[in-house]
Design a protein that fits this description.
The structure is a homodimer of 314-residue chains.
Chain A: E1 7-17, E2 21-40, E3 45-52, H1 65-77, E4 82-88, H2 99-114, H3 121-136, H4 144-149, E5 152-158, E6 161-166, E7 173-178, H5 185-190, E8 195-197, H6 198-217, H7 220-226, H8 232-236, H9 243-252, E9 257-260, E10 267-271, H10 274-290, E11 296-301, E12 307-308
Parallel strand pairs in A: 3-4
Antiparallel strand pairs in A: 1-2, 1-12, 2-4, 2-5, 5-6, 7-10, 7-11, 9-10
Helix pairs in contact in A: 1-2, 1-3, 2-3, 6-7, 9-10
């Protein structure tokens, strides 16, 4: 019997929340992400054969985010079909870069291609959300949506799911730094307030309105003004050693904005060109190293979504 | 001694909140508003000489919104100057049409002209907010800001005050109906929840983001989707007899959106042309009449801000 062909898909890292966009806004990066290979198998359902790049931390079975997302995809759109997967982790775990979301996104895009389903983005996001629920206990879509569609995505409704692509200012650069320790999303979510005073609700909503306005106008200074968060950031900052010092140093150095990526500890800063972003990256490195949690970072722009990266391989 | 010349200014009715924009979004109407005449006097400070059109309900002294706003304006920008005012109420009191805000806006614009101060909009809004605080106990700016600047205004920050003008879709029409009874703003504010679950915060913020996006795209259908409010409307709807029935009838008739204007009881519905707006107005009239609170309404579009309406009259 001839071996079934593998199809490989890549899904990018994502920065979610972006200040006031907690649980409803995210953007796709370009440089880094996860890769999933998928191929048909005779037996129905999904099998994850291999995970590399995770240091052995992730389950290589049906509990893995990628497998959960694909199981949801098959159940909804291809019952009776079977696929097997291999996952290459390019993203660090528990980092706030949408690592679990990237695995789920790459997996559903690979399987959509293998089974020639041609599903719309919203259906892929829905399946990938099941993976997020398995990974962190909340089926938030602010990582998987940009990981699948690319760009900057607003989620004004989760049920029914609504994806709104927002304009991306071409001069938007990010310095993205992941301190050298892991913060499980579940722990970062547990730190959140359960209820918020009404005045803060107004503040948060109006800032997200300003953020959307800033993207439409392409005004980075307004965007920086909008990326302020008095609800989630104060709750999570204490979980991230060095964060407040790093933010202060970035702001002093002229960063347009600096905030926590997703649930953290990854921290991003915004600049209007590559050179300034690299300067901010050096500042982030210095600040987190001083806090004893030196890590790794990169500069990047907003990029495209998950895509098939090889043709049929053999 | 030659009589000092009067200058007259008009400020429009405003629809604030617009669903998810509670306390941070408002728009100016065209057709109706309040008028203030102002002229210099020798004695420092402000005197309100006459109020007409209020049925005797408003104080004709320094407690009146218009006088409070002008007192704040003088204190901040023209200490030692004196003015006297006459106020013509064109708007019903406690209606949710920004009645107190229109008085304050017209007053500060008239006095700015009389004293030839040439103040920027933000300074006029700041003074008018003092009038709002006197009228309803909260110095919210979502009525006075659009009453002064016109258009649709987002307020992403109150301190420092930030005004952001949003695009106005040219096909945006409103049916605006004021049921035949008054709801004091203070009572409507007392009905609000003091704290909001975090998931609702996300929902509210993302809807305001969608609303801003819809205005930039000029897509009324998206605007309608965005004008949904699960925080303020559920708290205030029980205070407005007939509201839920009126809203249901409007939505069934194809309204793009229907919600409470400001603190209510005025109810607005959105349509994409004058004819549809008039049909919605008839539906609102029928529904509120059936609830025993027949009132008065009009159709209108978004209009300009407060302005001097006469030259020197004397």
């Amino acid at each position: 019997m001839r071996a079934r062909p593998w199809i490989e898909a890549f899904a990018p890292a994502t920065v979610s929340n972006l200040g006031p966009g907690f649980d409803c806004l995210g953007l796709a990066l370009r440089a880094r992400g996860d890769t999933v290979r998928a191929r048909r198998r005779d037996e129905p359902g999904v099998a994850l054969l291999r995970v590399v790049g995770d240091g052995g931390a992730l389950p290589c079975d049906e509990r893995n985010t990628a497998a959960v997302a694909v199981a949801a995809l098959l159940a909804a759109h291809a019952p009776g079909e079977g696929v097997e997967l291999e996952l290459d982790k390019g993203l660090p775990l528990g980092s706030g870069l949408g690592s679990s979301g990237a695995s789920a996104a790459a997996a559903v895009v690979a399987v959509d291609a293998v089974l020639e389903l041609g599903l719309p983005a919203a259906a892929l996001v829905q399946a990938a959300r099941a993976g997020e629920a398995a990974a962190c206990g909340a089926d938030h879509a602010d990582n998987v949506a940009p990981a699948i569609t690319g760009g900057i995505v607003l989620l004004p409704s989760l049920d029914p799911l609504r994806l709104v692509s927002l304009p991306v200012p071409p001069s938007l650069w990010l310095a993205v730094y992941t301190p050298g320790y892991s913060l499980p999303t579940a722990k970062a979510r547990a730190a959140l307030p359960t209820a918020v005073p009404l005045s803060r609700v107004v503040q948060q909503a109006s800032r997200l309105g300003l953020l959307v306005h800033a993207l439409h106008c392409g005004e980075l200074a307004l965007l920086g003004e909008a990326i302020t968060d008095d609800i989630v950031e104060p709750a999570r900052a204490p979980l991230i050693p060095g964060y407040l010092e790093a933010k202060a140093a970035c702001c002093e150095a002229g960063a347009i904005a600096c905030s926590i990526s997703g649930a953290g500890p990854t921290t991003f800063a915004i600049a209007s060109d590559r050179g300034r972003a690299e300067a901010l990256l050096a500042i982030l490195d210095e600040a987190f190293a001083a806090a004893g949690v030196a890590g790794d970072g990169f500069v990047d722009q907003v990029g495209g979504g998950a895509r098939v990266t090889t043709g049929l391989l053999h």
